[in-house]
Amino acid sequence: MMTEPETIGIFSVIRERRSVRNYTDREVPDEALRAIIAAGIQAPTALGFQPWQFVVVRDRDLMQRASDYCKPLLLEKIGAEPRPGMEEFLAALENPEFSIFYNAPVLVLVLGARDAVSSVLDCTLCAENMMLAAWALGIGSCWVGAATLVEQNPGLRAALKVPDDHQVVAPLIFGYPAPLPPKPARREPRIAWVP
Ligand SMILES: Cc1cc2nc3c(=O)[nH]c(=O)nc-3n(C[C@H](O)[C@H](O)[C@H](O)COP(=O)(O)O)c2cc1C
After folding, report:
1. Would the pLDDT of 5 be above 80?
2. Residue 156 is inside which H or E element, if any?
3. What pLDDT, on the 0 to 100 scale, is given for residue 78?
4. Which residue, among 101, 95, 187, 88, has the nearest Cα to 140 in the 3D structure?
5. Torsion 122-111-147-106 (CA) sign
6. Average pLDDT estimate for 110-132
């Protein structure tokens, strides 16, 4: 008989993880970030290429600069074709106080080598491992796709140590969660069984 999945730790971590957008001021220790990255690199990669690099950013002024750079670009991009559900984010982007990094204490960029066959897919699997590992350590995270726009700014690329032969695939923020809203519900999966 199969073990009840709900009783296995990894299932509860997967079920409970949610994107955290409200953090306490507590710093995430280097050892925790190393453990999170160590979990990330256990992900499978096409042809075993492991095409990633990581940048750990604790410089809040630099994060602020990156956020200030991305916000108007996002407003232009999303504002041009607003979709239902984006109203709150659009309004936040108009607020000068709002940071796309939600005042998280640390940002980790998962960079993918441009010459690898499946860089984006590989780094995405790595990023999910990292977010799950973080949750298991009591650390919240959020993938801030909005921050990939920093790629367009040579000064920010340099400050963030993004080499020319790598792209920013997953900008992940980490920190200890302040009180959380409920996790967004999931739709029932559509599953076809053959036969
Ligand atoms: C590729 C990707 C990009 C995302 N970009 C953002 C972002 O820029 N800002 C943000 O607040 N959340 C971002 N998210 C988080 C999603 O909004 C979130 O995962 C989704 O709403 C489901 O919520 P949950 O992670 O709490 O289950 C992103 C997630 C993914 C996978």
Report:
1. no
2. helix 154-159
3. 87
4. 101
5. positive
6. 98
Q: Domain-by-domain residue ranges, the chain?
A: 24-175
List ligand 1's pocket residues with C-beta within 6 A: 18-19, 21, 142-146, 183-184
pLDDT at 6 exceeding the cut of 80: no
In a 3-state reduction of DSSP, which class is residue 124?
helix
> Ligand 1 pocket test: which of 90, 101, 142, 169 has the largest number of ligand atoms within 8 Å of its C-beta?
142
pLDDT for position 165: 98
**DSSP β-bridge partners for residue 175:** 140
Say which amino acid occupies 50.
Q
49: helix, strand or coil: coil
**Residue closest by Cα to atom 12 of ligand 1:** 144
What pTM, to 2 d.p., does this model score?
A: 0.96
Q: pLDDT band for position 157 (50/70/90)? A: very high
**72, 110 Cβ separation under 8 angstroms:** no
Alpha-helical segments (H) within 23-145: 30-40, 60-80, 87-94, 119-136
Average pLDDT, the chain: 95
The CATH architecture that domain 24-175 belongs to is: 3-Layer(aba) Sandwich (3.40)
Closest approach atom of ligand 1 to CA 89: 11
